[in-house]
């Protein structure tokens, strides 16, 4: 299969590309703007993958990346961090909204057979008990999740209106190697390794449904191969866990001093709990293979062994972001 993977130099995208090249023998073109979150290093072990540097909201760049044609477009490209969407929402509207529109138009122009939109459990909003199904109402809380929800609706409209074979995959919280350290798990792992404070928002009792990144990649593969056009598929992790418990486990695994845990001001509009029912994607033959305990162990080891990857991040622009967000310096 020849795939165009948009946002393939980011965390989930690069893990997905690696999986497809290794397990499926796919030919992959990546279109990526290389924002702070997208890095060439994430693809450096995949010399046969072509990287086109450009934005999904730039129709010419999309045309260049599609070239003589692709069998499918898988769109991971997005602004993805909820905290950044609260302080600077404009990039979220542009990339997640306008960018998705340009890709859908390109898919029509080039008569691409399948379009897969990578979406999130956050489009459903927060749920105290039980789990969301694909029929649950869309009730996003943050500018990030609202921009992703808008994109999902646009994708569905291209199926109904133009007959484009669209699919939507809504994943729960991913974790694993190559994740930019602004997100909970890599931030806590690296801070713990350095003896920096571990900033827990609010009471730390918010619950997330953790999905190992390769399991999400495999789920997306099932939807790409067997999903019904026009449909959305939830892909949820096998284990849920309150944030403070995640942090405690990281403290334990890194051997850090628990006194570095620090409760800080909560995120505005913070969703309390996410939970996805994944029966529909299970019916396509998918099952999560990595439980949270094992996945977290692998993740901590990866960060421990790959300082070459995160050192330039922690000593670069990320410092400024961290200081702005947390009002304190990184050690
Ligand atoms: P990420 O921030 O690590 O990567 C995003 C990638 O998109 C980067 O490579 C970046 O350079 C690229 N990008 C950003 N703006 C672009 C633009 N305008 N044009 C082209 N490329 C652009 O994100 P991630 O965590 O890997 O998430 C990937 C996708 O999966 C997103 O759509 C996100 O909404 C979705 N998702 C993420 C999670 C999660 O837990 N991280 C869970 C479910 C769904
Ligand atoms: O649920 C899927 C979503 O997961 C994706 O769509 C998003 O792209 C991804 O960023 C992620 O969103 P969250 O907001 O859930 O992830 P984050 O890692 O930012 O935070 C996870 C939880 O940890 C959340 O309850 C906020 C909390 N948190 C986060 C940070 C960065 C802290 O307590 N302290 C922190 O410093």
Main attributes of the structure:
EC 4.2.1.46; 3-stranded mixed beta sheet; binds nicotinamide-adenine-dinucleotide; Rossmann fold; 331 residues; NAD(P)-bd_dom_sf; dTDP_Gluc_deHydtase; NAD; 7-stranded parallel beta sheet; dTDP-glucose 4,6-dehydratase; UDP-galactose 4-epimerase, domain 1; globular
Question: What's the SSE pattern?
Answer: EHEEHEHHEHEEHEEHEEHEHHHH
Overall shape: globular
In CATH, the architecture of the largest domain is 3-Layer(aba) Sandwich
- Could you give me the name of the CATH homologous superfamily of the largest domain? NAD(P)-binding Rossmann-like Domain
CATH topology of the largest domain: Rossmann fold
Biggest sheet features: 7 strands, parallel
- Report the count of strand segments: 12
Named once each, the bound ligands are:
nicotinamide-adenine-dinucleotide, 2'deoxy-thymidine-5'-diphospho-alpha-D-glucose
Cα gyration radius (Å): 19 Å
